[in-house]
Amino acid sequence: IGQQGSLTRVWHYRGGRPRLIKQQQFHSAYLFGAFCPATKKAVGLVLPFVNKHTMLLHMQEISKAVPKGRHAVVVMDGALWHQPSLNQDNVTMLKLPPYSPELNPSERVWQYLKQNELS
Known about the structure:
Layout: E1 2-3, E2 27-28, E3 30-36, E4 41-47, H1 52-65, E5 72-76, E6 91-95, H2 106-117
Parallel strand pairs: 5-6
Antiparallel strand pairs: 1-2, 3-4
């Protein structure tokens, strides 16, 4: 999720152009999240970058949240850092077919968050 400043209007004397400073840099953060619709529980991390190691941290957080004696299945797309080698003892990754984001139930949650809470 990234936020970049946008242009805005300012008051100035007629016939002149105001000199303004615009923030040029772009900062972003990566939200890792998982939820269980049945129990209404969620886990998540906010990290400065994304790679296989950060995905492993996320899978470990999910593993900690799964009750003893239960097994979780995490539905994921085909991103490079979504590797089956990241599976934990009580968490298994289910990869979706390519180009099928509509099959991922969390896509609507992320879309809602981007449009309503994070904009």
